[in-house]
């Protein structure tokens, strides 16, 4: 994962390329920093209490807490505004980890994970790449899966049965459990969780399985949010953002579009306005740009194409699938998603459940058939939908 | 680069050690055991013959007198016991915690141990 060509550090928080870290790491750090700020996490930072390192208890409490809070906010803002991105990640990571070890009352897995991923992002070096971050992610799933595998209450299903029924009072579980023999529902959920975590630990060690593992991981944590209505403080944000360390960012993204289509040009101008990294190259197919990838003109005339270029080779996507990837490869979109989930104050369980479910459905491959139908209708009617069209070729289906 | 790699390796090695240590102890610190155990508890604390109020318990131990913890039950006990050992050698409390794990039968933990 190469660092993008160095540019002048930008104050624009929606810029991730050329800011000192590879785009996926910069984006991961920004999503975590943004969520930390928007959820008001600074208020949770502690004074020393039952420190894991006893000498920290000797530090003056109010001064320690105030210093932590000030450094926390400054470092998070520095990450967002691209001020020495690597150093800011290190500082914010260490601040959170210091808070964790200084107070057993504050200690939590979600905060520890935030601190570690930010610290490892700050320790990134091109020669070691993202290996340590990937290893950390694997370790989390392995530790979690192993702990549960060896716990009798997880083996029997008792944990989930008690948690889902007595604690969460989850309507779906309360309906399902009585339909089955005692503890069977609990056992099912427990073993699916154990299996998923251990399988993810293994899958994230095999590069060929990264795409599937990323999907399963995203779905796993989204399903936890859907089931419980909570983000487990920061855990949802940091785990979803951390899958980015398994993404190889393309070195070129070429969009082949109909230059004579009004609605296409309007979309192009809109997307370009939000493409602060200038990551996308828009090429009207009428210029012959598609010849480089042997894409037939007829196909280019019917639908928009996206070419994702990696050193290993190019992949071509069309229509709805291309549109989805254009969203996913735009850091602005992912940051906006994170902000929309983190912003609502308090519980907001219903809002978060709906919001995450809608976007998950939109991006999930099973939705493609619906998405393609909608896309095809818009594409075949695009010249009627816009007065700007100067199309010299009859749209497909009208010839 | 070497220093960064050493620091990152040390971080990972610490966690591996914590995961292995968790196999031998009831605590679950730094070993990635989130939400592995639901501990319901009710605590009472008596200092110099007087039972502390709920707000006094929260101020002294930074835990409610009654509630749930989403990790190992030992974490709950640690908060109360270590608070006493570290901060209240001069005004010790007798603590009784009635607790249950994952909805099983209620048990009692006491400090100092009887």
How is this structure best described in words?
The complex is a heterodimer of chains A (399) and B (114). Chain A is mostly helical. Chain A is built from 18 helices and 4 strands. Chain A has helices at 23-38, 61-80, 85-102, 109-122, 131-149, 152-156, 158-167, 171-176, 184-203, 210-228, 235-242, 262-274, 297-302, 319-328, 331-342, 349-363, 368-380, 382-385; strands at residues 252-257, 280-284, 305-310, 313-318. In chain A, strands 2-1-3-4 form a 4-stranded mixed β-sheet. In chain A, helix 7 packs across helix 9 (184-203). The two termini of chain A are 47 Å apart. The model of chain A is unreliable at 1-5 and 390-399 (pLDDT under 50). Chain B has 114 residues and is of the alpha+beta class. Chain B folds into 2 domains: 1-30; 35-111, no CATH class. Chain B contains 3 helices and 5 strands. The mean pLDDT of chain B is 92.
Task: Provide the descriptors you would attach to this structure in a database record.
heterodimer; A: mainly alpha; four-stranded mixed sheet; 18 helices; 6% strand; globular; disordered N terminus; B: 114 residues; alpha+beta; 2 domains; five-stranded antiparallel sheet; 3 helices; 5 strands; 38% helix
State the gist of this model:
The complex is a heterodimer of chains A (399) and B (114). Chain A has helices at 23-38, 61-80, 85-102, 109-122, 131-149, 152-156, 158-167, 171-176, 184-203, 210-228, 235-242, 262-274, 297-302, 319-328, 331-342, 349-363, 368-380, 382-385, and strands spanning 252-257, 280-284, 305-310, 313-318. Chain A is mainly alpha-helical and 399 residues long.
């Amino acid at each position: 994962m190469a660092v993008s060509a160095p540019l002048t550090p930008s104050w624009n928080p929606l810029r991730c390329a050329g800011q000192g870290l590879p785009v996926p790491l910069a984006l991961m750090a920004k999503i975590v920093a943004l969520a930390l700020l928007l959820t008001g996490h600074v208020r949770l930072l502690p004074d020393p209490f039952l420190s894991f390192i006893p000498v920290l208890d000797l530090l003056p409490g109010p001064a320690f807490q105030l210093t932590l809070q000030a450094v926390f906010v400054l470092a998070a803002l520095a990450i967002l505004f691209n001020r020495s991105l690597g150093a800011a990640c290190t500082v914010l990571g260490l601040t959170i980890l210091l808070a964790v070890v200084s107070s057993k009352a504050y200690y939590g897995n979600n905060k520890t994970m935030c601190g570690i991923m930010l610290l490892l992002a700050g320790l990134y070096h091109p020669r070691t790449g993202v290996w340590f971050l990937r290893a950390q992610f694997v370790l989390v799933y392995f530790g979690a899966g192993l702990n549960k595998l060896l716990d009798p209450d997880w083996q029997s299903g008792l944990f989930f049965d008690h948690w889902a029924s007595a604690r969460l009072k989850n309507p779906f579980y309360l309906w399902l459990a009585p339909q089955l023999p005692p503890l069977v529902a609990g056992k099912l959920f427990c073993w699916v969780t154990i299996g998923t975590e251990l399988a993810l630990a293994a899958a994230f060690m095999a590069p060929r399985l990264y795409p599937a593992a990323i999907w399963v991981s995203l779905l796993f944590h989204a399903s936890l949010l859907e089931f419980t209505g909570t983000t487990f403080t920061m855990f949802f944000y940091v785990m979803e953002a951390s899958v980015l360390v398994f993404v190889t960012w393309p070195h070129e993204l070429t969009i082949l579009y109909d230059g004579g289509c009004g609605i296409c040009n309007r979309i192009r101008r809109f997307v370009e306005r939000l493409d602060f990294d200038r990551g996308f190259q828009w090429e009207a197919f009428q210029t012959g740009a598609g010849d480089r990838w042997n894409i037939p003109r007829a196909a280019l005339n019917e639908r928009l194409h996206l070419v994702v270029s990696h050193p290993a080779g190019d992949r071509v996507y069309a229509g709805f699938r291309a549109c989805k990837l254009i969203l996913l490869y735009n850091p602005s979109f992912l940051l906006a998603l994170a902000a929309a989930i983190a912003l609502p104050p308090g519980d907001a369980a219903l809002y978060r459940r709906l919001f995450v479910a809608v976007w998950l459905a939109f991006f999930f491959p099973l939705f493609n058939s619906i998405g393609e139908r909608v896309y095809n209708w818009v594409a075949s009617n695009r010249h009627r939908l816009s007065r700007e069209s100067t199309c010299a070729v009859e749209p497909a289906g009208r010839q | 680069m070497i220093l960064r790699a050493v620091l990152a390796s040390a971080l990972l090695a610490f966690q591996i050690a914590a995961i292995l240590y968790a196999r031998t102890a009831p605590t679950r610190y730094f070993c990635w055991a989130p939400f592995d155990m639901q501990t319901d508890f009710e605590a009472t604390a008596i200092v110099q013959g007087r039972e502390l109020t709920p707000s006094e318990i929260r101020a002294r131990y930074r835990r409610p007198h009654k509630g749930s913890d989403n990790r190992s039950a030992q974490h709950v006990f640690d908060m109360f016991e270590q608070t006493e050992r570290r901060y209240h050698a001069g005004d010790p409390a007798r603590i009784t915690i009635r607790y249950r794990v994952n909805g099983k039968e209620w048990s009692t933990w006491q400090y100092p141990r009887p």
